[in-house]
Amino acid sequence: MKILINALSGNGDALMFSPSLRLLKEKLPDAEIDMLVMFRSVMEMFEKNPFLNNIHFIDFLKQSKFTSLSRIRKLKKNNYDFSINVYPSNRLEYNIVNAFLGAGKKIAHHYLHTELSRAEFINDVLIDEIKDRHNVLQNLDLIKSIVQVKDEDAGPLEIFVSEEDKKKADLWINENNSDRRMIAGFHPGSSVLKNHIHKRWDKKKYAELGNRLIKDYNAKILLFGNEFELNEELKNMMNGQAVIASTSNYMDSIARMKHCNLFVSNDTAFMHSAAALKIPVVAIFAYTNFKELYPWKTQYRIVRKELECSPCFYNSPEPAECIWKGEEEFKCMKLIETDEVYNACKELISEMK
After folding, report:
1. What is the pLDDT of residues 119-141, one digit of tens each?
2. CATH tag for 2-153 (out of 3.30.830.10, 3.20.20.140, 3.40.50.1370, 3.40.50.2000)
3. Under a CB-based contact definition with an 8 Å cutoff, are residues 119 and 95 in contact?
4. What is the pLDDT of residues 238-273, one digit of tens each?
5. Total Cβ atoms within 10 A of residue 220
6. From residue 175, how far is each of 115, 171, 243, 245, 262 by CA, in Å?
């Protein structure tokens, strides 16, 4: 049997398929399971995954449509029995790719917020999206049409780090935390696609939080993410006591992140990556649905504001918008104070002892 996993969205969404990937391989040990990605960082994240046979990288965003189509035609020759659009993939383009791959059965979701123009109907098996169901379990629903699994079978998120990356990270940590202080990782950024820059908690509050953790716990602060200018600002606001930990390679970040004792993040792929590494996470949520996206199978605290209007963002190609305007726009994030996040950190730190 041949199965192709279409993980065409970002790292966080792809990572939340990892429990289903393990189950597929356990239930079908002789199956050939491949993955199609369009972001290099997703390819880097899955390169060492033992449950995959091949990873195919097609740069749909930067290369010509003709080149992309020729690559898809080449993949089609593998004669896959199943192709699966990883949840969420609520876009016309993802359904078209799934159709062109020509698998025996094409599996995807039927979304609560969709349109006929997204062409869900060109898939063979449509799984109903369920509101407030975690993304890991939405992905599990996709594979239930291939193998018999139950919700309780879903294990943790998984990232496999190479020995070489571990060794490089160990050397880096020894250089940057030679006095063995408690390490708190921060990801203050977010994607800017679909207006998601508004997922970001205020950088001044991040700096205030970092300075309090340094003062009260003698913490070393590591700054993650490819928002290098933002991280440089934060480093300066913490009197140079924070260290920029990310490089252009996602697995450098992950290998270094493994050394964190605590992770504070907006709702991003780095938050889910910390969960995969079993790091206690303080997750700061605004308009996205924490019930569907909370850190999976690790210790965590959610910090958010319970407003009548939130969560208001659902899985669709539409950008995030706010019903409030002016100073109150995206107040679901703006109203979160440093004390709230600090107290969540304090709770998790007390549980470590």
Report:
1. 999 999 999 999 999 999 999 99
2. 3.40.50.2000
3. yes
4. 998 999 999 989 999 999 999 999 999 999 999 999
5. 24
6. 53, 6, 11, 12, 20
